[in-house]
Structures are given as C-alpha cells and as structure tokens.
Amino acid sequence: MSTLDTAAPGGTGAGAAAGRGAAGARKPVAMAQAVNRALRDAMAADPAVHVMGEDVGALGGVFRVTDGLTAEFGEDRCTDTPLAEAGILGTAVGMAMYGLRPVVEMQFDAFAYPSFEQLISHVAKMRNRTRGSLPMPLTLRVPYGGGIGGVEHHSDSSEAYYVATPGLHVVTPATVADAYGLLRAAIASDDPVVVLEPKRLYWAKEQWSPEDPEEVPGIGSAVVRRRGTSATLITYGPSLPVCLAAAEAAREDGWELEVVDLRSLVPFDEETVAASVRRTGRAVVVHEASGFGGPGGEIVARITERCFHFLEAPVLRVTGLDIPYPPPMLERHHLPGVDRVLDAVARLQWESGRTMSGDGGGDGGTEGGGD
Amino acid sequence: MTVLEQPGAYRLAPPPGWRPRTDPAPLLPDAAPFRLLGTGTGPDGGAGADADGRAASGAHAGTADGGALDPELLLRLHRALVRGRRYNQQATALTKQGRLAVYPSSTGQEAAQVAAGLVLEERDWLFPSYRDTLAAVARGLDPVEVLTLLRGDWHGGYDPRATRVAPLCTPLATHLPHAVGLAHAARLAGDDLVALALVGDGGTSEGDFHEALNFAAVWRAPVVFLVQNNGFAISVPLAKQTAAPSLAHKAVGYGMPGRLVDGNDVAAMHSALGDAVAHARAGGGPTLVEAVTYRIDAHTNADDATRYRTDGEVAAWREHDPVALLERELRSRGLLDDAGVAEAARDAEEMAADLRARMNADPELRPADLFADVYAAPTPQLTAQAAQLRAELDAEAAAEAGAEADNRAETRTEGGGR
Q1: B266–chain A nearest CA distance, Å
Q2: Sign of torsion, CA A39 A43 A48 A54?
Q3: A218-249: per-residue pLDDT in tens?
Q4: Torsion angle of C-alpha atoms A103, A108, A114, A118, degrees rounded to 10
Q5: Is the pLDDT of residue A355 over 70?
Q6: In this structure, which topology does domain B25-359 adopt according to CATH?
Q7: Among the partner residues B181, B376, B381, nearest to A191 by beta-carbon distance
Q8: Nearest-angstrom CA–CA distance, B146 and B156
Q9: What is the pLDDT of residue A22?
Q10: B381 at A interface, C-beta within 8 A
Q11: What is the ipTM of this complex?
Q12: What are the domain boundaries of chain B?
C-alpha cells in the first residue's frame, strides 16, 4: 500500500475555474513543473524575488524545480550558494532585511536542520522583536516526506518542528494547482512561509493550465476535497492521495468519507475542520509524521475542544510510527496506507448506531473493514 | 548577472596542473598588533608601528594615512571614549539598582566599540552583539533605546531600519550571515554601503562565524568582521577556543585579508576599520579585523570573574587602558590639558545623569503588544488569545478597583468609629 498511486485528486478542488480559452488550455502537468512555473512567474513579476540554494543554478535543483531560472534571470537572481544551510538562510535573512524576497530551497527535509537556529531565533522572531521594523518576507521551500525509496536523511516529515515555532506560516500543497498557488501566496506574503513540498508527489500529473493557473484559496484555508457523511478524514500533503483512495475504497463498505485537505498547517483553519466534523460526527487525522508530538495531536485536541458534543467516537490518528525514518526497503510499514486508514475508520464506534448519516455504514467491530 | 559571475573562475585541474587559487601572503595578518598611539606617528605621515615599535611593514604598511592621527579625530575619539567609559559604569550601576535585568559590560573595550561606532557612514549598517551596546550609542543612538533589551520591557528599543543598526544579537555569531546578506543585497542594488559586524573571541567557534565569512568571501560582499578578542568567553580563555596562530589568521582560509590590531589603541582601531570599510566599499570584498583587548569587568553582573582569572592579569591590562593610552598621546602633543579632561568628564557626566534619570522612570508596559507583529495580521488563534488576555487583565483591574473601594470603605468605617 505504500507504493502509492498518486493519481490526481481531480477537479474537486475549490475555485476550479470553468471556461478557459485556448491559451489557458489544461494539460497534464507535474507538481514540480508547477512549482517551477510559480518561481518563474514570481521572479518575472517582482525583481525583489531571489532564489537561492544548493544546486539551484546550472543543474536546476536535484528535483529540477529551479530548471532554467538562472538561464532566464541570471546568477544574481537564482544563486548557487556555498553548501551551508545555516549560511543560506542566514544570508537570506540579511537580504530580506534589505527589502528583497528571498526564496530559499533546502535540498531535502533532513538537510534543513542546520538552518533551524536561523529559522527559530531570527526568521520567526524578527518582525516581533523589531516591532514590525524588519518583517521577513522570506519563503523556505522544503521537499519533505517519504515514499520515494530514499536512503536515510532523505525522507523526514519535519512539519512538527515548524508548526511548533510561532512566527512562521507553514503550508503544504497536495495538488498541482495548490503547489503553484500556495507558493505564489508564500512569496507574496510579508511573513516568512515554510512551504513543505511532498516530494513523492513531485511527478504526479494533473490537468492544469500553466498559462492560466486557477485561483486557489489563500494561506490559512483548508479545503474539502471530497464530500461525505459518515466520517471525516483530515490530512495534508503526501497523505491526501492516500485518504482519497481510502475514501473510494470505503464506499464498498457503505461509508461515505469526507476528506479535508488542510493545505495550511499554520494558520490552522479550525472553522473548516470543525464544520466538517460536526457534520459527520467522526474523524480520523492522517499524516506521515510520527504520531507522538506530531501535528495530529494538536488537530485532535482542537476538534475535541470544538466538536465534543457532536462526536460519536474518539478522534483517531493514523500516522507514521514513532521511529527514526526507516530504510527504504522497510518504509511501507511506516507510512500510513489505505488499509491503515480504513482500519481506523472501522474503529470509529459504528456500533453506537448514532450517526448523522442515518444507519451506521460498516458493521461494528469489523477491523480492517476496507480490505 | 553582474555581481556573482566570475569570468575565468578557478577550475580544479589534476595534480601536475594544479595551482593555488590566490597567493595567500597578502592576506596574512600583521606580525604583531597594529598600533598608532605612542609610536610617534604623526599628522606628517609616519607609518604605524607593531608591538615592538618597528614600523609596520608588509601588506598593510602605509594604509594608515596621516589622517589616522588627525588632531580633530583624536579629540573626537577621546570625547567618545570618556563617554563610553562613563556609560559602562552607569549601566552597571543601573543593573545593581534593578533597573536593568542584566548588563554585559564593555569596560576596557571602549576603543574597539567607539571606533566601530564612529567609522561608518550614515548609509552603512552596524550589526552588534549584546555586548556591543556602546558601539550603537557611539553611533548616535539613544542609550535608553539601546538598553531596552536589557531592561526587559521589549526585545529592542530602536528602529533598526531607521538607524541602520541591526538588533542586538544574543545567539552568538548568528547575526554575521545577516550582515553578509544585507551587504550582498545592497551590492546587487548598486548601493555602495558597507556592513560592519561585531563578534567576540568565543563567537569565532560558532558555525555561523565560519559560514558568514565563507559566504562573504565567495560573494565578495562589502562586509567588515570585527572580532573583539577580549580573552574570555564568559569564563573560558582563548586557548580553549582555538589553536589558530591568531583569530585574524582565520581570514586567510576564506580568502580574505586579516588584520591584527591593538584593540585598546583607538586610533589604530579607527584606522584599521576605516581601511577595511574603504576596501569593502570599493568592491574589494570583506576583511576580518581582530582587536586584541580585554574585558576588565566580569561577563555580566551575574558572573564572578575571580573564579577563572587573577587580579594580576586584570591589573596588567589596566596599565594598557584605552582612555589612558589616548590621553597620554593627546597630552604629549599638547592637544589636551587638565581643563580638557575635565570638560570631557563633564560631558560624560551629563550623558550619565540623563540616562540615569530616564532609566529610573518605570517603562510603560503594554501586554497587548505581545500579539502585535507576530505576523503581519494575527491568526484567528492569536486573536482569540489576545481577547482572553484582555479579559484577564480587565478582571484583574476590576478586582483591584474593587479591593481599593473596599479598603476605602473600611478606612472610612474605622475612621468613623474613632
């Protein structure tokens, strides 16, 4: 189940534009290409935007996300830096102090750790400690998550570290349109934004128009990707396709699962999440990051605070195990897959029979009912 | 497209064809700390001298032009040194009176501080660490605003953008890459400003020091790094920080010049920093300047320096005091007499009295500001927390007002009973 098919969630996203001219024709586009397009459009629109990182120049980045930017905008705008993440982010802070909008690429999740002191002690705090004199319009792009067969230090889900730091916005796209739209919003933001890009979705293609990118909701908005009445799956980034697949499979068992894509971990869209859970009465939070201390705990707590009287069952979590990221040949045991999600759905106390959708879907106690 | 491109850049060749990228010799620091005071260097253009009194030679000989001992500059430096010494005393006293949470004194280091504060043009940026409040004050900032961080009513009291003084940095050396990035951005914009970044001997062990110097050299950023080697990182002596011949030698490994300067010789400091700033402004790239100095006071008021150093060592450094060194020079040149010394002291006393009076006023605390400027616009969660704090404060105020009313009523009752 871990070799996920990253089929496009399709046009279920909010704000999908309807009629398009020939110039804005949709075609299959991979997420990495949409990110590249967002960088290019942002650089063309604003000379203050500077891309910097390791191998982002002639090579175009190890994921080719910065392909062609140095050729088009020159080395001063898209810069191969010395190989030192603290130095990259630290110099980006100084550039932002002078009014530029640096977009920093960290090559992989785990290689961003040397930059954490700059991020936590300076990027996140600068606006506050200077009473607004030095805002940090800085974007930190981090390819994250597993499922790509990477050897150690290449597959971490590091979002918990970022969301625990006040002063940062943290977004993570799961669709091609969001990869473009959230990155443009991040670069345009006057606050620092960490953009966590699910690297196993980089090559997932969807119908999308590079010439006429559709509007997507801004930072801080969650989106209901699939409507359902039985229970809500709350997820983000690399786990969205897993949840959509699980929701499809659950129909066989009579469950109509709603799927909420958070998109933005900070700010957290409590309204959309709470509204969904109040409708369905049951919820499962799904993410790749380890469960203990992971974002799921915070999300579950807020659901409990806001939806207690609407809940038919404890809110469950399906997360990565509480282990260092496993070697590639064992990673499928770590990653939340469709089966594990359906197992959790089956444990949502259906025997109580009280559900907003009428009769309670699957048979009570059928562990792994979606198999 | 112009700044970072290096035509004919070095490419590594297999061993017979290998060649060094640059000649390291011109980058090497002075053999001994560069000095000007007490060396007979005059306005008529004599060169500086090293510790043994020999005329400076090598890469930096003659860079200290006659202007380095320009009488007007020397008198300006003197005034600033005396004020700086008094400022340190006053801030230390304010700490003992509970008006500052903590004060890391730069007593003994005033020459390096004052030179750093006075050497820059208005458009340049200063990047101080927490021990460098005097450099900011010497640059002209209001001492009360500079000390706000240490008083504790906010993390900073001056506007960095308006003053071009970056926030006082506490995590050691982490502000050095900021200086590099800012200077780089200015150069990209075609602005000829320079960033001067201050760090201590302990800070040179931090990774950010290394990364900042490396980035600066690779990008030829207009930055000057001033290392104040005051002998100690809190309690740990230099021997436990580094095995380098000097901290200035570290420059060579990055491909930038290093300067070794008597940090208590304010004329030498001003001259060496001025040269480095001019070099950076002209597009020559960064310089590392090591100021050999000494922290006369303990690390902060909370530190006990007798646990790790002897009184004798401190006494020896007092003999090499920056204020005394300059006064000796000025008197020998007939530029300063007792009246001049008294005048400088009076000026410093005025500054201290004003600082004392204003620091003795309680700062106005604004709890609502805790939520301001966390983000450009507050998140829904922060808005809710701000409302909660406001409700708590209102309840607190109401309870206090109620208690006061009760007290008054009680007093009246008691009074009436008498």
Answers
A1: 29
A2: positive
A3: 999 999 999 999 999 999 999 999 999 999 99
A4: 20
A5: no
A6: Rossmann fold (3.40.50)
A7: B376
A8: 7
A9: 60
A10: yes
A11: 0.92
A12: 25-359, 367-417
